[in-house]
Every structure is written in structure tokens, then in C-alpha cells.
């Protein structure tokens, strides 16, 4: 009888899941328990769970990793060759670029191994092992070794991870980093053993006119014609272990690499993505969605827009500044446009109404269960949000202006001041020596003092418009009293006369360092005031966030129980996930139909030599006009560029492999569509689409434009 009940429960779960099969960022370690592998097979998958994730052997999981600190990459050859997005590799491409070697504009192609460029600071991280530590954490809570809220905190989780690592067989192995994290708002906990490789070299990157074709205009949009890819390679020591850069290091012999399929794809084909989605908020209440719109998105849109106007003007006027600020601008504009699209999509897609319906159903469920904790939790969340919303608005403005917008004024001289007060000569010498590094950090190769001056002149008065006088950092009192509210005059004084403003001022201070000079320095006053404002706000928000975290733990546990037997997935937190769906077109509005793929025809249709975003390289144009596509063309002679799938992704999934039913690589995920930018909050099956780069376009560019046939030769390709 029990077995029958279990069978019926599992069957019900399968039926229920089939209604919204595309939604979900599923944990690989729960594929069998949650029956997601059965659903994948139903949609067309030819693999077994062990082929995707095998805790005791090699699987597809071992060919996917974290690229840098915020993207996904996949291994596409036995010798450590990485494929990721162009925008993921953008900072590294910029790092190697100069006016003399402008790889952003011209692209970079390593025609041999010795030309692959070491990229300091870039790492690639594999997931070595995953362990469920929920029972252990709960036991510690029950024994009162820690409180429930302490179980969420990094201090406890980091300590636990190290304790378990020191007891494990992985202790002492090179590159291993343990990381414990909460899932389902603290209802589950997992320990990840990560393996970090530090010698990663740049191998190939198309020019930005291909890798960023369409630029800001096409970002988050379909149809898309962006060749958003770059390639890197992992190097290791002679034993295949992680090692810092050394000329003697060799390409990593990977235990798993992806087979590449150029067979093509059709509407309805199975598509699966593995990667590291960064953050979603699928379990927010109505009040929290409103807070996201009004306290986070709206101020971010306004402030970033003002900063970007300044940067764009400066970048258009100078190639040097364009290269310096390319990555900063791209990083800023990406989530500026995302915030605009999210607020629009929340309204257009009736997300607030959907959330209200969910809350009503939950209230009925709580009543039926006679569960007082569930019955009151939403109202309690709303009460806390009423307090956090104005504080989060202030914090967003503060962060965007003083920590994300204006770059100058980030150095505090407190320790130098203390040494001078104590008249400790040896300590003074050490502090002054350290200031040289501080100066270099400010005036780095990607910083222009005059551009930043213009940013400050734009943002300081804007902040004053958005924030009441009593809530502003104390530097605003100085501006009012000393400069009669003249922001330009204050900025010029700080940017001309501060200790760190220029080399002359800096060396003058080094020759005669005094407490008075530090106290009177405008940038020091400015820096101190913004940190004081931040700490005050952070302290006010912190206690409320603690309360909210515990309430969410209850709410999400209740929602999970309400949905049974349908399994729930946890919000994204930049851990390894799997999402499955199909290649599919969509209809965004009445009378509009979008095909599921684009071709190079669209590149020429969009071409505009007068607009940097839509310049087509002469060589690519020639190849398109001649239809010189080789074996990568469609049967009708066209060349595919991008395609759509219904996979559930978010930021962090950039660069993720798109796999067919056989686990073969067919594309590289790089964006979501404009109409579904509310997707981080609420998944919409009808509208949500993942925009992917067709692997055939990657190989075509690599071979025909980059002349990198040697890279293609090391791949495993099926046709």
C-alpha cells in the first residue's frame, strides 16, 4: 500500500510538472529525488541522470565551470579550451587592449599556443563535489550551538565548510576551496568543494563589431545577431593541478569536454542548459516586488543613466578613454537597461496580480492546515518591508552615486593619521610607503581623472535632488557652508587640490606629511562622510533583514508544502543548476511573431557604418555576400547566428552551454528577451526566452575570420 501511494505521488508529480516544464533552475544532486530527470526524458533527453551528474564518476557536470567571478564557461576540447561569452571575457580583452593593440576593436586570435595571453587575476572554477549538510546544520541549531539566524551567516558557514574540508580526503589538494550555502531560504544547506585554476590565458575573441554587434540598442532584445563568444584556455602544472602562472605550465588535460554538434536544430528540439545563475527572487510577496521597482530599479535607472551620458560623450571623443571605460560602461548599462525592462515587464505581465493570487492561495492553504505561523507570515513580511523600502531607496542612491558612480575618493588615511599623531617614525615610514600603492590603485590604467570629475559634477547634484538634506552624507553640509551649494566649485577644489588628485600633490604630502593636511583634505572629508552614511544605513537595514530572512524561511517552506507533490526549486545563488526546455519561437504581442532563429542576412540588414554598434567588419561582410560558410551553413545556404529556447536562466548563466538531447553542445547562452525581464521574479512560460549563440556561427567566425583552424581541430565535432 505504501509503495502504491509512493508510485501515485510520483506519477502525480510528473503530471503536475508537465504543465510548466520549462520553469526551474534545478539542483543536479536532486534530479532523481525530484523526478526532473524523468521530465527531461519525457521532453526528449536521451541521457541518464548519471551522464549529467555523477557524484562517483565523470559526467557533463565536469565540463562546466565558473568563468572569472560572474559567468559560466564550458570545456570544448581535451586540452582545457574554454568557450564563454564575449561580454564575459570583455574585462580580460580590455585588460590586454591599448591604443597600439586594440583587441576590443580588432579582435584577438592566437594562431598558436605560444601566442595565448596570460591573464592575471582570471580564474576558472570547477565543482569537484557536492554534499548535503542540512542535518548537520539543523543539529547544531537544535543543540543551541548556533541560532537559526546564525545558520544563514557567512561566518558560521565558512567555519563549517573549513571544518568539514579538514576532515575530508580533499584536504591538502591543490586549488580546493570549500563553500557552504543555504538553499530554499535556509531550509536546506549544501557544501560545495570547488577546484580553482589560476592560470587562464586568452585564446580568441572576435572584434567588438561581432562580439557586441548591436551594442546597447540590441541588449535584451530579439531578433539578435550578436556573435557573443570568446575563448580561453586553462593551464596547469605538469601533474594537471592548479598552479599560478608559469611559462612551464601546460594546457590542462580535462577529464571531460563537450562534444559539439553541427547537425542543426529545429523548433521543438530538446535544449538543456547547465550553468551558474546568479540571483533570482521568485518567492517575493507583492510588497517586495513593489519595493524592487521603487526602491532599487527606479533610482538605479536614473543615476546610471546620468553617469552613462557622461561616459558615452567622453568615450566617443577619445579612443584612449573608449578603451579605458569600455568595461565600466558595459557593466553599468547592462543592468540599467535590465532595470528599465524589469519594471515595464512587471506591469505588462501582471506580475503583481500573479503574486497576489499566490498569496491568496497560500492564505487558504494556511487556513486549511490550521497553521498560525503560515497564516500570519505574509502580513509580517509586509510590515517589515514598509520599514525597509525607504531605507533601501536611500542605500541604492548612496551605492550608485558614491560607490558605483564616482570613483575618486575611496582612500581613507586613518592609519596614516594615527601614526603621525603617535609620532611613530618607523610606522609612519610603512604607512607612507603603502600610500604609493593607494595612489596607483586610484590612477590606474582604466581611470581618467577628468572624466571622473565630470561624473561627480553630474551625480552630486542629482543625489541632492533625490535625497532629503537630513539623509545626505555630511559632505553636503560642507558644500552648502563653504561653497554656497556650488557643486562644480566643490568638485574642482577636490579634484585639483586633494592629496591624491595628482602626482604633484601626492609627492608634496609625502615630503611633509601632517595630521592637519589629512584633516583639511577634501577627498578625505568626502570619503569619511560617505562611509559614515553607509554604515549608518547598513546598521538600520541589517536588523530588518535578519527578521525578513527568518520570515522568508517560513514562507518558502510553506509554499513548498502547498505545491506538493510538485517539487520546488530554490532561488538562484550562483551555484550549479540545470534548466531544460525546447527550441521555440514566440509571439510577444498581437500581430507579432518572432522566429526561433536568425541568420547573417539580419547582420547586413542592420548594418550602419555611422553607428559604432552596427558596424560590420569588411571581412565578415565579404564572407556573407559570398555565402562562404563552409560546412556550417543551413541546407538552404543561409548561415545561422542565434536561436531561442525556453530555458529558465538569469545573470550568471551568461556563457552557459546549450546542449541537445544527446548532451552535445549546440550553442552558448548569452541573454534574455525584453518582454520577460520580470523573469527573475516570476517565470512566464509564454514569453520567457533564452537567447543563444548558435555554435555553428562560433565555428564559422573562428575558422573563416579568425583563421583558427587549429582550434577547431582539437574539438570533437559531430555532423
TrEMBL record:
InterPro entries: Pep_S46, Peptidase_S1_PA, Peptidase_S1_PA_chymotrypsin
Pfam family, one: Peptidase_S46
Keyword Protease applies: yes
UniProt keywords, alphabetically: Aminopeptidase, Hydrolase, Protease, Serine protease, Signal
GO BP: peptide catabolic process; proteolysis
Enzyme class at the top of the EC tree: hydrolase
EC number assigned by the record: 3.4.14.-
Signal peptide: 1-21
A molecular function GO annotation: serine-type aminopeptidase activity
Statement: the UniProt record of this protein carries the keyword Signal: yes
Domain of life: Bacteria
Role, per record: Catalyzes the removal of dipeptides from the N-terminus of oligopeptides.
Similarity comment text for this entry: Belongs to the peptidase S46 family.
Protein name (record): Dipeptidyl-peptidase
